[in-house]
Automatic annotation (TrEMBL):
UniProt name for this protein: FHA domain-containing protein
Annotated source species: Herpetosiphon geysericola
One Pfam family, short name: FHA
Coiled-coil regions listed in the entry: none
Chain ranges of the FHA domain: 84-144
Length: 172
């Protein structure tokens, strides 16, 4: 994970901007902008630059997911359409979940190693699925049936064992 120097939110490796505050992770030399040449410097030099109208919006944006672990205050940001596994790390079994609740007291709070999975799809659709955990997964106090995905919405509270998460969704 990449920790934002401005707000300390944890972001996925390969992320260029903080999902929480928007701070850039790019080196300053990459962020430098080039000077505008102006329309008369363009090929043709007439100064009459024709700009086509913007393309109509497409509903293919992948939602940006932020998970706030309310027990510890830790914030994690995701900008991916890959499944996000939530649980506890298992060094012996070489299992490292995308959201590791070990450091948040996950073992003591009853979080299974492979507790739940979040799937993010285009069209702002996110689902949460309990992976057959011992202590259950809840969305807004409603217990999920194991292996049966349920829609996640912005502001939902998710409980895994006794760990409480808040889900924040935005479009890219």
């Amino acid at each position: 994970m990449i920790k934002c120097p401005a707000c300390e939110t944890e972001n996925l490796p390969g992320t260029f901007f903080c999902i929480d505050c928007g701070s850039s992770f790019l080196p300053s030399r990459i962020r430098e902008t080039t000077a505008s040449l102006g329309a008369s410097s363009m090929a043709g030099g007439s100064g009459n630059l024709v700009i086509p109208p913007p393309a109509p919006p497409r509903d293919t944006a992948v939602p940006v997911l932020r998970v706030v672990i309310l027990n510890s205050g830790r914030k994690l940001g995701f900008n991916t359409n890959q499944p996000i596994v939530i649980g506890r790390q298992d060094n012996k079994g070489s299992f490292y979940p995308d959201i590791d609740l070990s450091t948040d007291g996950g073992l003591e709070a009853g979080v299974s190693r492979r507790h739940a999975i979040i799937r993010i799809q285009a069209g702002n659709v996110c689902t949460l699925e309990d992976l057959g955990s011992s202590n259950g997964t809840f969305i807004n106090r409603e217990k999920l049936t194991a292996n049966s995905p349920k829609a996640l919405r912005h502001g939902d509270e998710v409980r895994l064992g006794n760990i409480l998460l808040r889900i924040e969704l935005t479009s890219q």
